[in-house]
Amino acid sequence: MRIDLATAPGSPERPNEDWLSASTPAAGGGVLVVLDGVTPPAGGDGCVHGVPWFTARLGGRLTELSASRGDMPLDLILAEAVRATAEAHRDTCDLSHVRTPQATVVVVRWDETYVEHLVLSDSVLLLQAPGGEVTAVLDDRLDRLPREVLRSVAATDALRNAEGGFFTAATDPAVAARAITGRTPRGRVRAVAALTDGASRWTDTFGEGDWAQCLSVLRKEGAEGLIDRVRAMESDPARPTARHKRHDDASAVYAEL
Prior knowledge:
Elements: E1 2-8, E2 18-23, E3 30-37, H1 51-68, H2 74-89, E4 103-110, E5 114-120, E6 124-128, E7 134-137, H3 147-150, H4 153-159, E8 180-185, E9 191-195, H5 197-204, H6 211-234, E10 250-256
Antiparallel strand pairs: 1-10, 2-3, 3-4, 4-5, 5-8, 6-7, 6-9, 9-10
Helix pairs in contact: 1-2, 5-6
């Protein structure tokens, strides 16, 4: 088994709001967790802790439960992790605030029988078959919204965790039912990768290659190599700014099973 992971902040002046982990329990198998904390617009989010605190709490709970509760489906694990994280700051923060700390989620768990996955919001999961074919598991609800709508803070707030909009892990455990979930026989998966949108730009923003080629870069150059490629493209003044942000926190994890 090979697992390679890397993360880089979008700016040295701001803390990295991504969070990722890899676990290989003694009982066998493994777990990958990747979160992309949502940067709130100016004006506050009702929380005294901040997004990095939130992603660390949520990510830690997701990793613990995914590794220790093999009998528990990933959507129920996400629901419990969201509930526990909310309880950790319910007494100090306004959890009803529409911009309360929240994150995208990718969880992958495997044993000798199956590879399970869960994807919520716009981080990307890639599954590679033994023959080399790559399947991208995407929650594309955010991408379906018009860019001009998302340029408005008020309009985005109205669509956040709402019908007809997009969903992230925040304070409501019920959001777990909105996640994209599935499982694949272990013998049909050779490798997996998870990317926050700061790293997936190589394919979905800059169009340097398809998802299979992106996975090939990860295999040959590692997660840090892919992020370095993205940073080089972002620094090219001839390229348009991706989603109105020149640099974003970028994280990637690659695992050969």
